[in-house]
Amino acid sequence: MNFVSVRIITGDVARLVDFYERATGLSASWGNEDFAELRTASAALAIGSTRTVPLFAPGSAHPADNHSVLLEFLVDDVDSVYRNLRGFVDDFVNEPTTMPWGNRALLFRDPDGNLVNFFTPVTPAAIERFAG
Question: Cα–Cα 20 to 30 A to 1, which of 53, 88, 94, 97?
Fold first, then answer.
């Protein structure tokens, strides 16, 4: 098995794609007006329109209603990324903070309220977990 993507369902695909392109520096690949992906070396962030939900099962997903999942991105320097995101991101949950498990993390919300964590391993154990 290989984990390949996370999909966000939204009422405004273009707005959310623009946000993630600006926040990550990645360019989206568009399938059509209802679906786009931002790919990294290990997985993709897919963004789909509410119009795609009935293709799976009507009512199975609701936009802007996530209260449990964090989207996490490994970055080279979370403090630098934070400086670049100020003035663009409207809702920071915290400033860069070193967590007990060794990552320096920045938590914020995207325009739909989804939690996003940009992090940099800073302790030897955390660095080792992400080496390779």
Answer: 53
Task: Please tell me whether residues 91 and 44 are part of one structural domain.
Answer: no
Same domain, 73 and 132: yes
| Separation between Cα atoms, residue 132 and residue 27, nearest integer Å | 24
Q: pLDDT truncated to tens, each residue of the chain (132 aa)?
A: 999 999 999 999 999 999 999 999 999 999 999 999 999 999 999 999 999 999 999 999 999 999 999 999 999 999 999 999 999 999 999 999 999 999 999 999 999 999 999 999 999 999 999 986
Indicate the number of domains in the chain: 2
Identity of the amino acid at 129 = R
State the pTM of this model.
0.95
3-state secondary structure 13-68: HHHHHHHHHHHHCCCCEEEECCEEEEECCCCEEEEEEHHHHHHHCCCCCCCCCCCC
Distance CA 117, CA 101 (A): 14
DSSP annotation of 111 reads: T
